[in-house]
Backbone:
C-alpha cells in the first residue's frame, strides 16, 4: 500500500493480503473506523482488476473473518465490512496508477509538493516511488507515494465508459 497504511491497518493488511491472494482477490485498502466497537473495512477486487459482487464479498468476509479471529489484532468486539473498490476507487498501489493512466485523480498530500497539498490532475503512470500526474497547464509532476494521504479516481464519463462491463460497451 502506498504511504497510506500504518499501525493497526498495516498489521491487518499483512494478515489478510495472503488470504485474499489465495482466493483470487487483491487487497485495495484496509480502514479501521471507530473505537468502542471498531469496524474493519476491507476493500478488494479480483486479481485481474475486475470489480467484485455480493457473492465475492460473502466469500471474502467468511475467509477474512476466520483469519482475523485467529490472529486477533483487535481486542474485543469488532465488525468486518467487505466491499468492492467501486468506479471512483482509491488509488493505493503502483499498479493502480499504471492501470488508470489517462484518467483524472484527486490526491491529498501529507506535505506539499511544489507548493500543492491537494492536486487534481490526469494520471500519466508511475515510477518506482512516485505517481506521474499531468497538471492542467501541461506540466508533469512526480508525486511521491510516501507523501500521499489519500488518492482516488475522479468520476468522469470517460472512466465510466472504460470500466463498464464488456457487454455494456457496444
Residues:
Amino acid at each position: 500500500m502506498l504511504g497510506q497504511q500504518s499501525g493497526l491497518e498495516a498489521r491487518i493488511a499483512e494478515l489478510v493480503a495472503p488470504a485474499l491472494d489465495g482466493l483470487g482477490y487483491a487487497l485495495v485498502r484496509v480502514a479501521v473506523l471507530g473505537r468502542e466497537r471498531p469496524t474493519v473495512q476491507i476493500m478488494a477486487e479480483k486479481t485481474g482488476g475486475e470489480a467484485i459482487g455480493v457473492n465475492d464479498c460473502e466469500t471474502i468476509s467468511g475467509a477474512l473473518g476466520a483469519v482475523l479471529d485467529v490472529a486477533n489484532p483487535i481486542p474485543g468486539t469488532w465488525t468486518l465490512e467487505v466491499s468492492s473498490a467501486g468506479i471512483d476507487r482509491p488509488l493505493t498501489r503502483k499498479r493502480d496508477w499504471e492501470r488508470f493512466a489517462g484518467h483524472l485523480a484527486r490526491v491529498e498530500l501529507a506535505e506539499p509538493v511544489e507548493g500543492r497539498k491537494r492536486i487534481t490532475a490526469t494520471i500519466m503512470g508511475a515510477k518506482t516511488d512516485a505517481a506521474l500526474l499531468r497538471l492542467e497547464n501541461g506540466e508533469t509532476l512526480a508525486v511521491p507515494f510516501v507523501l500521499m494521504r489519500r488518492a482516488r479516481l475522479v468520476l468522469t464519463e470517460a472512466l465510466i465508459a472504460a470500466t463498464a462491463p464488456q457487454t455494456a460497451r457496444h
About this structure: The chain has a mean pLDDT of 91. Residues 162 and 169 are 9 Å apart (CA to CA). DSSP finds four helices and eight strands in the chain.
